[in-house]
Design goal:
Blueprint (H helix, E strand, L loop, with lengths): L16 H12 L3 E5 L5 E4 H18 L6 E5 L5 H11 L3 E4 L6 H11 L3 E4 L4 H10 L5 E4 L9 H6 L17 E3 L2 E2 L7 E2 L2 E2 H11 L1
Parallel strand pairs: 3-4, 3-5, 5-6
Antiparallel strand pairs: 1-2, 7-10, 8-9
Helix pairs in contact: 1-2, 1-3, 2-3, 4-5
Amino acid sequence: MPLGSPLPDVVIPKVNFSHYVLDLLGKYGDDVAVIDESDGAKSYTYRQIRENIIKCASAFNKLGIKKGDVVATCCGNCAAYPVVFVASATCGSIMSTCNPIYTKDEILKQFVQSQPKAVFVNDENYDTMVEVAKVVRSIKYIFSVDSNQRCTSFHDLISKASTRDFPRNVKISQDDVLLLPYSSGTTGLPKGVMLTHGNVVSCLTIVR
């Protein structure tokens, strides 16, 4: 005999991840969204995070980061992380995460496959990423989430952005790949896992 839940069915909205998140962020305004322990416990409101996402997406679009390109993060947890993720999604790009303490060879195993166009790093692994970029020729931009003087920082990237460059007409479906994390499972080298906009929106809707 089939069993049913007394609760109503969860209705999954037919929108892409960026649309879903930007709409939610707009509802919470000046409530605190993120506290960045890596930056002296500095706090950011939902409004500020949303504004930074729009600036970051505008900067990406001006740089030519477009649908299907890969944006990689190889940095520790920080306030820039969710901004880069949603901004990448807004451009139709794919975000791929990488362990910031990986060695050059470990990063190469991942990046030779994922072919990122832009990478976000910490100061500590900037030199390693420069060496990786000599092999992985798809890497055009290396940004630091810290205050690295040798490359463009995340702060400089968004502070110089103009919302006139915001990617307004990108056609993104729920079947487009949003996220490319790498997992080794139980054995072997890490393997890319393709998660779509629909996958992540469904999970977020269920959790809410």
